[in-house]
Amino acid sequence: MADIAPVLKAVVPAAGLGTRFLPATKATPKEMLPIVDKPAIQYVVEEAVDAGLSDVLMVTGRSKRSIEDHFDRAYELEEALRAKGDDERLEAVHESSDLAIMHYVRQGEPKGLGHAVHCARQHVGREPFAVLLGDDMIDARDKLLQRMIEVRGQHGGSVIALMEVEPDQVSAYGCAAIEATDEEDVVRISDLVEKPAAEEAPSNWIIIGRYVCDPAVFDVLEKTPPGRGGEIQLTDALRTLADMPAGQGGGVYGVKFRGRRYDTGNKLEYLRTVVQFAAERPDLAAEFVPWLREFVRQHDGVGDAADS
């Protein structure tokens, strides 16, 4: 196999309207909703940087300017904190602006994830790249993206992250038909289906929001017609790549992920994520966890009573 180019760039699609969180997202991007005291999107960028990807392209849309501001310097705020001697908060403010080399491109129309990824073509060029969805968070202790980059280095082609779910959940996700390889956590993808009915799903392994893509995906996306929902689906492009020869950038592999994932794209999971992060914070846990225990004790059975 020819030398496989290293993965150095990350693409973070963040152009969605965030309608599930209205009215909070009327003027604030859903990606900026805080997980305790840090916006969700910062955790995603930190994950990319932790995997060695310090060149990050954010694909944004209208009303997303606050994302750019968050990763930029805030000189007036910094001076105010410095004057107060508030070094702890000053360091936290610097952390976001010093994280990565940030770039931005606008997705003019909401034409789907595949279209958002295609918007990165000029910036990425002919290099492999990672895609991290902004409302999917992977625990920093679980090195999923590093493993995916490693698999890309071994096999070439593209790599997707997979999680196993109950059969009644597959219709909410893209689903993969898989073939075993010599490594327990790595499979070859033979087919991908976007949001299949449970009885038509090829497996219980769904695609979650992490991808490592061969640059050949751009040519495929350019020719991919709108699919489910009238949008250009990245899943459809990857399905095409799965049938293409390795010498043309084809081949798709999956990494089976059994770690900690937080889906901040819906209200219930968002609330669970905030509570879990707060309960694990050394500066908050000593007071928050006892309060939470007492709150649960006082409300134990309330939900059951409402359902009956």
TrEMBL record:
Give the Nucleotidyl transferase domain ranges. Answer: 9-267
Q: Which InterPro entries match?
A: GalU_uridylyltTrfase_bac/arc, NTP_transferase_dom, Nucleotide-diphossugar_trans
Q: Does the keyword Cytoplasm apply?
A: no
Q: Which domain of life is it from?
A: Bacteria
A molecular function (GO) held by this record is:
UTP:glucose-1-phosphate uridylyltransferase activity
Enzyme Commission number(s) from the entry = 2.7.7.9
Q: Which Gene3D superfamilies match?
A: Spore Coat Polysaccharide Biosynthesis Protein SpsA, Chain A
Q: Which reaction does it catalyse?
A: alpha-D-glucose 1-phosphate + UTP + H(+) = UDP-alpha-D-glucose + diphosphate
Span of the secretion signal?
Answer: none
UniProt keyword Nucleotidyltransferase present: yes
Q: Name one GO biological process term.
A: UDP-alpha-D-glucose metabolic process
Q: Which UniProt keywords apply?
A: Nucleotidyltransferase, Transferase
For this protein, the record's NCBIfam families field holds: galU (TIGR01099)
The similarity comment for this entry is: Belongs to the UDPGP type 2 family.
The cross-references to PANTHER family, in alphabetical order and at most eight, read: UTP--GLUCOSE-1-PHOSPHATE URIDYLYLTRANSFERASE (PTHR43197)
Its protein name is UTP--glucose-1-phosphate uridylyltransferase
User: Taxonomically, what lineage is the organism?
Assistant: Bacteria, Bacillati, Actinomycetota, Actinomycetes, Streptosporangiales
